[in-house]
Design brief:
The protein is α/β, with parallel strands linked by helices. It has eleven helices and eight strands. An eight-stranded mixed beta sheet has the order 1-2-4-3-5-6-7-8, with helices on both faces. α4 (134-148) packs across α6 (167-182). It starts with 6 loop residues before the first helix and ends with a helix. The mean pLDDT is 91.
Length: 323
């Protein structure tokens, strides 16, 4: 089998500064992620001039405070509008162990600028300092806050979208499951190369993986470190916290879904299986598998006048508008 990889992406990955992360060392991995994300997500991706952000805190289920940012084309989210809008609740990626809303602010602002739909970005607490179920409950607390303040924020409570990439997509799926159980309506979920399977931690002995390995931005060892950190308490969890690994989950309860996977990624099979789970239970799914792209490809291609990247972003924008 011959590996297909986007030529522009291949060039960036082969020349990327910083070297490979230490896959079994949380401190080293966080340092590497900070360096890469700070450059690509804050310096390469430009911040739209027509989007403003407001920072505030909400109270989590355990009484702690969670930072959130509300991005909109209004200077103030409490500014009076004539009609209610949909709203995205966005969860950043980072394997549940790295990342924050600040580093993703330019990307989330792009979604707002392109669609006019505001975003509530959630700085959920990270493992292993805050293992499951804390990140999932933080996500639900943000949803509950938005739902209870829809009138003040001029948000349509029937048009709430859960969105995330990587672990953020896994978190969005968990929050959707909790919302179904706890009675908050979700209109749609937008899941970008989701990190879902806590058992996907061992490298298969395959030619396919050997070809992909030099271009992987997220590896099996990193996945193991992340899930070991997230599940460090080793207690029994509510099935809704990890629906992908629950054999009894009712997939029919999930909302309409927009789902992307990429082929140069150990998480591609996670997304494919999720697609099957949803469609076999009559959930409407728009599914895209992007050939030759890797996990976290967006900022790596942002410096290019790249028609493929623009096409992908346009599909995401349309998915937001089609809520």
């Amino acid at each position: 089998m011959t590996l297909t990889i986007n030529p522009s992406l291949k060039n960036v990955l082969e020349n990327q500064k910083g070297g490979a992360p230490v896959e079994n060392d949380l401190k080293a991995l966080r340092k590497h992620a900070d360096k890469i994300e700070e450059h690509y997500y804050k310096e390469v991706i430009t911040k739209p001039s027509d989007v403003a952000g407001m920072q505030f805190t909400i109270t989590a289920h355990d009484g702690d405070q969670i930072e959130c940012r509300f991005y909109s084309k209004d200077a103030d989210p409490n500014q009076v509008r004539t009609s209610k809008l949909p709203c995205i609740i966005h969860f950043h990626g980072g394997g549940y162990i790295t990342g924050d809303v600040s580093r993703y602010s330019h990307l989330t602002s792009q979604y707002v600028s392109a669609t006019g739909v505001p975003v509530l970005s959630v700085d959920y607490r990270l493992a292993p300092e805050y293992p499951a179920p804390i990140p999932q409950e933080d996500g639900f607390s943000a949803l509950q806050y938005l739902y209870e303040h829809c009138d003040n924020l001029m948000i349509d409570p029937n048009k709430i979208i859960l969105m995330g990439d990587s672990s953020g997509a896994g978190l969005a799926l968990s929050v959707a499951a909790l919302a179904a159980e706890r009675g908050i309506p979700i209109a749609k979920q937008i899941l970008i190369y989701p990190m879902l399977d806590s058992n996907n931690t061992e490298e298969p002995d395959s030619e396919d993986l050997k070809e992909k390995k030099p271009y992987l931005t997220w590896t099996h060892r990193m996945n193991k470190l992340a899930f070991d950190s997230l599940l460090s308490e080793k207690e029994e969890y509510e099935p809704s916290l990890f629906p992908f690994n629950d054999p009894n989950v009712d997939w029919s309860k999930f909302p309409k879904t927009y789902l992307e996977t990429v082929t140069v990624d150990i998480l591609n099979d996670d997304g494919r299986q999720l697609h099957r789970n949803l469609t076999e239970n009559n959930v409407q799914v728009e599914f895209h598998e992007w050939e030759g792209l890797c996990h976290g490809f967006e900022p790596l291609l942002w410096t290019e006048e790249n028609d493929l990247l623009q096409n992908i972003l346009e599909k995401r924008y349309q998915a937001i508008l089609d809520v």
